[in-house]
Write a structure and sequence with these properties.
Elements: E1 5-6, E2 20-31, E3 34-39, E4 42-47, E5 62-69, E6 75-82, H1 88-101
Parallel strand pairs: 1-2, 4-6
Antiparallel strand pairs: 2-3, 2-5, 3-4, 5-6
Protein name: Protein ten1
GO molecular function, one term: single-stranded telomeric DNA binding
Subunit structure: Interacts with stn1.
C-alpha cells in the first residue's frame, strides 16, 4: 500500500492526479456527500461518498483526511477522522518540519 503525502490544503493543486494525500481542514459546508474544507484562505472540495455510511460531519469541525486527488482537483476521501482538540500551531509546525525532511 502506498503511503499518503502529508500536506497543507494550499499544496493540493501542486500534487499529482491520483496521488494519495493526507491533510487537515475545517468543515465549511457539507451536502450530499460533498464536503468543502478550509484552512485559512485555502479550500478544497472532497467527495466522501465512499465513506459516507461511516461519516458524521459537523460544520466548523476539524477533520483529518486521507484521499486521492482527482484530475478535476476534487479529493476522493478514503479515510476521515475528527481532529477535535488538535493543537493547530503544533500540527502546522510538525507538518512543515516533516516536509523539510522529505
Amino acid at each position: 500500500m502506498d503511503s499518503a503525502k502529508l500536506i497543507f490544503i494550499n499544496q493540493i493543486n501542486d500534487c499529482k492526479d491520483g496521488q494519495k494525500l493526507r491533510f487537515l481542514g475545517c468543515v465549511q459546508s457539507y451536502k450530499n456527500g460533498i464536503l468543502r474544507l478550509i484552512d485559512g484562505s485555502s479550500s478544497v472540495t472532497c467527495d466522501v461518498t465512499v465513506v459516507l455510511p461511516d461519516v458524521s460531519i459537523q460544520k466548523h469541525e476539524w477533520l483529518n483526511i486521507v484521499g486521492r486527488k482527482r484530475q478535476d482537483g476534487i479529493v476522493d476521501v478514503l479515510l476521515i477522522r475528527s481532529a477535535v482538540g488538535i493543537n493547530l500551531p503544533r500540527y502546522r509546525q510538525m507538518v512543515s518540519e516533516r516536509q523539510k525532511c522529505d
